[in-house]
Amino acid sequence: MFRGQADATWDVLPSIMRGNKNFLDFEKDIIREIISRYPYDFDQDQTTFDRLSRMQHYGIATRLLDITTNPLAALFFSLEQFPDQFLEPDGCVLYFDGPLDRRKFFDSDTVSCIANLCSLNSDEKAILATTTARNIAEFNALKPARRLLQFIKAEKPYFEPEIRARRPSYSIRSYPKTTERSNNRAAWCFYGIRIGQRLWPEILSQYSIQKDLCCKC
Question: Looking at residue 31, what DSSP letter applies?
């Protein structure tokens, strides 16, 4: 998978983590606000992951990091111009290679579990991230886990209360439905239960990443 960045010095971060603003603490509110303002834009979306993919396309801060199966598309974004800057920074194309078991499609149960974490508030996500639950039953008995299950069952009524706890830095590559807004691209979900700057090196260490510079001459 490939990603193009117009500035090679940029960190590889999803938009909800960029800058000094703590958007992550208001993730739930951001999503609800957007859907309440523009409900008709999300009429055709069947799952939370569908809605997150659309929000990512619209430029809203999410936990999704855009990647693509097409290296030429990544190259295009790496050569983006900065008209207001006298000196153009070098761009780069990143190549990601990770475990096959982290490769999921839009209808995956794992994708539903991770995507719906965005519906929990920061305190609930903190409880799930720091729990000492020893098994699946104990984890699913937690109040935040029961709330998470409600959101999952809203899109998958058959889903059983058997959510497995994951380490906070757990991430997957998830492929949305191919539409006019997502042709030749995939959304790489750097989700985990909780993500933050201190966890980022651990997340990136789970993948082999190669960076090639693109000089804008």
Answer: H
**Cα 66 from chain centroid?**
8
Q: In angstroms, rounded to a whole number, what is the distance separating the alpha carbons of residues 22 and 100?
A: 32
CA distance 95 to 69: 10
Rounded CA gap, 17 and 63, in Å?
8
Strands 172-175 and 186-189: antiparallel
Among residues 168, 201, 146, 154, which one has the least CA distance to residue 24? 168
Cα separation, 99 vs 62, whole angstroms: 23
| pTM, rounded to two decimals | 0.83
* Cross-strand partners of 103: 173
Angle, CA 80 vertex, CA 23 and CA 105 arms, to 5°:
55
- What is the distance of C-alpha 183 from the center of its chain? 18
pLDDT tens-digit profile of 173-199? 787 776 555 455 565 655 555 555 555
